[in-house]
């Protein structure tokens, strides 16, 4: 397939408007969207074609409550590392849409995956987790193309998430995703807009 300028324009829009979303409308997503997001991950690259990502949809109220409690505890610990001034800024940030996001996915990497027969990850075993990151990013862009927002939550104790969701010992938490319709859209990262961290251009050197 030969791609043309309209494809490039569409991709540029998706990239520019794919932001990390933490403010969601509570409206449920159509089932079609869940299927589309699931299928999008099938297109992600992975080391040795191992496809080590494993997804758990966190749907029960009990599990959701446990994840929120986990976030609140990890977030309070995280705030402690800052000086008082910066801590005040930190605690004012909204860093997760766990209360509202209608679809929540815990995305794991199976560190014992046999698929791929170890190809490409002997000297750099972390490639398995990087593969899962590519699947998450593929889902993220696909969601944006459907006018759906995604927020990545990493302020969690992964051992607690594994325990709450009773996943196998070989699964490592790679990302926890809040997904839903964004309450507001923007083409600039929230952390830039609220003064926490300005955007910078990619550092790219030639040697
Ligand atoms: C690996 C990873 C973990 C992240 N964890 C969090 C998080 O716990 N809370 C949060 O608010 N944003 C989190 N983010 C989103 C970043 O804050 C966001 O990507 C960054 O500020 C740039 O904004 P943008 O995604 O809108 O371009 C995470 C992003 C990545 C890639």
From TrEMBL:
One of its GO terms (molecular function) is oxidoreductase activity. Residues 16-181 form the Nitroreductase domain. InterPro entries: BluB, Nitroreductase, Nitroreductase-like, Nitroreductase/BluB. Coiled coil: none annotated. It holds the Pfam family Nitroreductase. NCBIfam families: BluB. This is Cob(II)yrinic acid a,c-diamide reductase. It comes from Cognatiyoonia koreensis.
